[in-house]
Amino acid sequence: NAFRRDGRAVECTGLENQQGGNSFQGSNPCLSATYLIINMHEFNPFSINKPKFLDILGFSDFNLDKENKTLELKFNASVELTHSNDTIVQGGFVTAMLDSCMAQLVLALTNGQVNPLTLDINVQFLRPCTVGEILVRAKYIKEGRTIAYTSAELFQNEKIVASATATSKLV
């Protein structure tokens, strides 16, 4: 009873404007169908060709807010990422989590039409990052024709651990 039309999932219900839905007109096989948008065409940077290094970093989930141009990535840092008797996550891995979140935000906001190449990243380490759950929140600052500016913050236990800004070339 469902089919696709113009990239949208359509369900033939026989009811006009059910719960605020809009009915199709014209050559619709279901004369009084309502359509249901399921965001099938909304770009998900993790659905196809997810970078393998995200698994190494412990990537577990994401939350994209296109309207506010923000992306949250969740990681679970393992002991394999640590030094100092398995207690501190190495700074390069922290930087990779920040950089990944900013890059994936650019990919998501451009529906994968451009590839952001980090030209410059500036990271501030504010406290030690330890094994366990990590939340990285990136936001889009500004975009030019070929350059994007982003920022990100990394949190553990609701405390900021590190922050970063990046300049990326859009190719």
Description:
- The termini are far apart.
- A hairpin with a 2-residue loop joins β10 (147-156) and β11.
- Helix content is 14%, strand content 43%.
- The strands form three sheets. It has a six-stranded antiparallel sheet. The protein has a three-stranded antiparallel sheet with strand order 1-2-3, with no helix packed on it.
- The model is unreliable at 1-41 (pLDDT under 50).
- With 171 residues, the chain is mainly β.
Task: From the structure above, extract its key features.
single chain; mainly beta; six-stranded antiparallel sheet; three-stranded antiparallel sheet; 14% helix; 43% strand; disordered N terminus
Largest sheet: 6 strands, antiparallel
Low-pLDDT regions? 1-41
Radius of gyration: 21 Å
Biggest sheet strand order reads 4-5-9-10-11-8
Mean pLDDT score, rounded?
80
Order of helices and strands: EEEHEEEEHEEEE
Number of strands: 11
Helix content: 10-25%
Distance between the termini: 41 Å
> How would the global form be characterised?
globular
The percent range for strand residues is 35-45%
Alpha-beta classification: mainly beta
How many helix segments? Answer: 2
Quick overview of this protein structure:
It contains two helices and eleven strands, in the order E-E-E-H-E-E-E-E-H-E-E-E-E.
